[in-house]
Automatic annotation (TrEMBL), chain A:
Transmembrane segments: none
Residue intervals of the Ferrous iron transporter FeoA-like domain: 1-71
Pfam families given in the database record: FeoA
Taxonomic placement: Bacteria, Pseudomonadati, Bacteroidota, Sphingobacteriia, Sphingobacteriales
Protein name: Ferrous iron transport protein A
UniProt keyword Acetylation present: no
Keywords assigned: Iron
Organism from which the protein derives: Mucilaginibacter rigui
Listed Gene3D superfamilies: 2.30.30.90
UniProtKB/TrEMBL annotation, chain B:
The protein's name in its UniProt record: Ferrous iron transport protein B
Domain named FeoB-type G: residues: 4-171
Upper taxonomic lineage: Bacteria, Pseudomonadati, Bacteroidota, Sphingobacteriia, Sphingobacteriales
Record-annotated membrane-spanning stretches: 281-304, 337-361, 381-403, 415-442, 454-475, 513-532, 645-672, 684-703
Domain of life: Bacteria
Biological role stated in the UniProt entry: Probable transporter of a GTP-driven Fe(2+) uptake system.
PANTHER family: FE(2+) TRANSPORTER FEOB, FERROUS IRON TRANSPORT PROTEIN B
Cellular compartment(s): Cell inner membrane; Cell membrane
Gene name of the encoded protein: feoB
Bilayer topology term: Multi-pass membrane protein
Keyword annotations: Cell membrane, GTP-binding, Ion transport, Iron, Iron transport, Membrane, Nucleotide-binding, Transmembrane, Transmembrane helix, Transport
Family membership noted in the UniProt record: Belongs to the TRAFAC class TrmE-Era-EngA-EngB-Septin-like GTPase superfamily. FeoB GTPase (TC 9.A.8) family.
Hydrolase is among the record's keywords: no
């Protein structure tokens, strides 16, 4: 399951990434394996999404979310 | 100014870094450029308690030393380059206490460069509110650096921070964070020995960033490239393992020094606000209302200060004319330099108000929500959620807006934004539009509430946005992407705007505008003045001789004679000759040589149009009296048809030309500054001219 598939309010734990380049950027922003992620909201037009991770809010596009595999 | 110690301020975005910078330095700061790049360099001075003076450099906010945008790339090079006039003796890393974990990533990277470090722990009050408990003492011991709790907004802890800065060590005493050498042992060893650096992390960063670092020679960069191949160094893999190692270290450090409750208090308030502000329906309605309010205010609030500035310059001109002896030098000073200056100064209120709004929207965190909401639409047309800010800013002035595209990390998105921003109807087009619309569009209402003139003006604004979007869409297919686009962006917690920062931003941006655009506009005004005051050969002499004959001096009043002479002189000046030369080219658009002169002069700046029209139609008094310019233009007769020059077709043709043409020397200059390649402004100039010509041609022939 990937982060993209989570609905608003649902939580998942990061397992791994499918894209190295994206993973470097995501990890810098605190999306690390083992970290819990909650989807806070989805933008009015369905993309991007906002997630709650390591104590703050981060927005990312659905495509980027699809590179994050959850446990 | 000499300083005793140089301090660099480093931190994540949204941590209150610029507030702390302002708190430390007060008004005692200046903005320049980092050598070789167009990144704003903010330097300020602070008096330390021991009497020494500290020079404080505010480095761009970044989440890590690995840059994602142009601005961020400056951070590592300033910190790592030895013995320059910017090399810091000390780094203050500012950390948001409500988000320690992510903030400490940058700290550990900076600490590993082994420059003496101090941590300023900001937003302690908010951390307390959110029930985050931090054992500052223990954390400081763990990291081996002094930690000063501050609240930059409330100016708390600033004196303490200055104290600690003055006691700071000359040597780096911080604990090692991770085993850097283990990440890529061979390449670090080779670079360390070949490039004479004893710091393994600097060596590793050189391996990562050698292509963009200005302080490496091409030969050095090539050598590092060779080494990378030799040891099969993979930059992204190394970065990934470094980041994981750092977060492991940070988790260990924070394990018993920080206690965070499950949900942060502030975040939940923010969540409630977000539910409304990014709501499916209300979100867009609110955004539109904010925009509408912004434009209303930009025009409404600036009207009075703008007329004050105009009056001031009229007064200065009058005073100078009175004091100075007549002659070409006085004319140059008054009609060239002072007139040019007033053309710049008059835009200060609009620019200041626009930047007040932008800085409030950014400060509160609303701008990133707008970006969040708009990203999908903007992406469809080849732009990026972050392009919204420059495009909106374009309604005031393209120059600062193009400067604000630096926040767009993706090269292609940024270039397209730069290329289309000048299409947005900026405030300099407003006087041109209002003048022409009031000439040809009747002042009456349709459908009860809509004023025809207002509708025409709104139409011009809508057209500008539409054209920007369409051109962006076309460019999406023309430009090749250099890197993949991504949109990983922090949505900061909503906060009250810091009014001090708003004022600073108004002041700074206005100053930058006056200094940068001012130079160009004054230079061009002077050139224009020369071109329109002198003519080839002895044409001017002949005109004077002709009109000194009794048949003119006897029959005409001195005033009207002077007017006729100056009109004749203008036609025979270099500018007039130029106007005649381009007449065949612009005839299909319905323009005559007089409008041709205005077109040429307007390539310096659009607002010059009104002034030139005033001169050409020889209005006495100053160009700001739009009414009189209007009357003269209305009465101007076309010698061929006997009808008025400014018909509906000509006026709309002119407006189309002004809507699309790149008539702004400052924008050309700033596009060059931002792209560092003449081909960009050249391409932009070319495509806009073609669009302008085509649109004007269509408008003239459809409405003729």
């Amino acid at each position: 399951m990937t982060l993209e598939q989570l609905g608003v309010g649902e939580t998942g734990i990061v397992k791994e990434f499918t894209d190295l380049e994206m993973s470097v950027k995501l990890m810098e922003m605190g999306c690390l394996p083992g970290e819990s992620i909650r989807v806070s909201r989805i933008a009015p037009l369905g993309d991007p999404i906002a997630i709650h991770v390591s104590g703050y809010q981060l927005s990312l596009r659905k495509f980027e979310a699809s590179t994050i595999i959850l446990q | 100014m000499k300083a005793d110690i140089r301090v660099a301020l480093v931190g994540n975005p949204n941590t209150g870094k610029s507030t702390l910078f302002n708190a430390l330095t007060g008004l005692n700061q200046k903005i320049g450029n980092f050598p070789g790049v167009t990144v704003d360099k903010k330097i300020g001075y602070s008096q330390l308690p021991d009497g020494r003076r500290a020079e404080i450099i505010d480095l761009p906010g970044t989440y890590s030393l690995y840059p994602k945008s142009k601005d961020e790339s400056i951070v590592f090079s300033v910190l790592a380059e030895k013995n320059t006039e910017l090399t810091p003796d000390l780094v203050v890393v500012i950390i948001d206490a409500t988000n320690l974990k992510r903030n400490l990533l940058l700290y550990t990277q900076v600490a590993d460069l082994k420059i003496p470090v101090i941590i300023a722990l900001n937003m302690m009050d908010q951390a307390k509110k959110a029930k985050i408990e931090i054992d500052v003492e223990l954390l400081s011991q763990r990291l081996g650096v002094p930690i000063v709790p501050v609240s930059a907004r409330k100016l708390e802890g600033i004196e303490q921070l200055k104290n600690i800065i003055s006691y700071a060590n000359k040597f780096a005493l911080q604990q090692d964070s991770i085993d850097v050498k283990a990440i890529a042992p061979q390449i670090i060893a080779s670079i360390s020995s070949e490039f004479k650096t004893d710091n393994p992390y600097v060596a590793l960063q050189l391996a990562h960033q050698h292509e963009t670092l200005k302080f490496l020679t091409p030969a050095q960069s090539d050598r590092i490239e060779e080494l990378e191949k030799e040891y099969s160094f993979h930059s992204q893999k190394a970065q990934a393992s470094e980041t994981i190692a750092r977060y492991n270290y940070i988790n260990d450090v924070l394990y018993d020094t920080v206690h965070t409750p499950v949900t942060a208090h502030d975040e939940s308030i923010s969540n409630k606000i977000d539910k409304i502000l990014t709501h499916r329906v209300f979100g867009f309605i609110i955004f539109m209302s904010v925009l509408l309010f912004m434009f209303q205010s930009i025009f409404a609030w600036s009207a009075y200060p703008m007329s004050l500035i105009e009056d001031l310059f009229v007064w200065i001109e009058g005073g100078l004319r009175h004091v100075l002896p007549g002659g070409p030098l006085a004319d140059l000073l008054i009609d060239g330099v002072v007139a040019g200056l007033s053309g710049v100064m008059v835009f200060i209120p609009q620019i200041a108000i626009l930047f007040a709004f932008i800085s409030i929207l950014e400060d509160t965190g609303y701008m990133s929500r707008v970006t969040f909401m708009m990203d999908k639409i903007m992406r469809k047309v080849g732009l990026n959620g972050k392009s919204v800010v420059p495009l909106i800013g374009g309604f005031a002035c393209a120059v600062p807006s193009i400067m604000s595209t630096r926040t767009i990390e993706n090269w292609k998105d940024r270039m397209i934004t730069i290329m289309v921003t000048p299409l947005v109807a900026c405030s300099a087009r407003l006087p041109v539009y209002t003048l022409l619309i009031s000439l040809v569009v009747p002042h009456k209402n349709v459908w009860w509430i809509f004023n025809l003139q207002g509708l025409a003006l709104t139409g011009m604004y809508v057209l500008s946005l539409l054209s920007a979007v369409i051109v962006a869409y076309v460019m999406k297919f023309v430009l090749k992407a250099r890197e993949r686009g991504y949109f990983i962006m922090e949505l900061p917690v909503y906060r009250m705007p810091r009014w001090n920062n708003v004022l600073f931003s108004m002041y700074e941006r206005s100053k930058t505008f006056v200094l940068q655009a001012g130079k160009v506009i004054i230079a061009v005004s002077v050139i224009l003045w020369v071109l329109s005051s002198y003519g080839p050969g002895d044409r001017f002499k002949k005109i004077e001789q002709t009109y000194s004959q009794p048949k003119y001096t006897k029959t005409m009043t001195p005033d009207s004679l002077a007017r006729v002479i100056s009109t004749e002189k203008l036609e025979n000046s270099y500018a007039g000759v130029l106007g005649h030369t381009i007449e065949p080219v612009i005839k299909p658009l319905g323009f005559d040589w007089k409008i041709g002169i205005a077109l040429i002069t307007s390539f310096a700046a659009r607002e010059v149009f009104v002034g030139t029209m005033a001169t050409i139609y020889s209005v006495d008094g100053d160009a700001d009296r739009i009414d009189s310019v209007q009357d003269k233009m209305r009465n101007a007769k076309n010698p061929n048809t006997g009808g008025p020059v400014f018909t509906l077709g000509v006026a709309f043709s002119l407006m189309m030309f002004y809507a699309f043409a790149m008539q702004c020397a400052s924008t050309v200059a700033v596009v060059y500054r931002e792209t560092k390649d003449w081909r960009w402004p050249a391409a932009q100039f070319a495509y806009m001219t073609v669009l302008a010509y085509g649109a004007a041609f269509l408008a003239y022939h459809l409405l003729k």
